[in-house]
Write a structure and sequence with these properties.
Elements: H1 13-37, E1 38-40, E2 48-50, H2 59-95, H3 110-115, H4 123-132
Helix pairs in contact: 1-2
């Protein structure tokens, strides 16, 4: 956390620091994984251009290229969502909102936050949302 930022979180500073370190590590890992599937550009919503594999010129090579490209798009999409979740969690830590359910405003259990640091909802609200979907 940066000095001077007003953190009004109800969680212990030690826990927040631990979770922030986990999130920073996750961010670096996800960005590294994303680099395998895309290159900087302006082609998709994340500002990157998916990499189209080039295995050769035969029909079989072309078929495998298309199949791998489609599979990579799905993986890239999942990684981008994970990165957005991590970035959102880091912003909530800095704003002091981390650890509070965005729906009911109750404190999210520390065990849940350690198991899933990007959680923005308590277990009860998450169950309700999952049942409605």
């Amino acid at each position: 956390m940066s000095k001077g930022s007003p953190v009004k979180s109800v969680l212990k500073a030690e826990l927040l620091a631990k979770i922030q370190a986990i999130l920073v590590d996750d961010k670096a890992r996800i960005e590294g994984e994303l680099a395998k599937f895309s290159k900087p550009g302006q082609k998709d919503s994340a500002g990157s251009e998916p990499i189209f594999p080039d295995y050769g010129d035969s029909e079989e090579d072309n078929a495998v290229e298309v199949a791998d490209y489609e599979a990579n798009l799905s993986i890239e999409s999942d990684l981008q969502k994970s990165l957005r979740d991590v970035d959102s969690s880091l912003k909530r830590i800095l704003s002091g909102e981390y650890g509070t359910c965005k729906y009911c405003k109750k404190i999210i259990d520390e065990k849940r936050l350690m198991a899933r640091p990007t959680s923005s909802a308590c277990v009860e609200c998450k169950k309700t949302i999952a049942q409605e979907a």
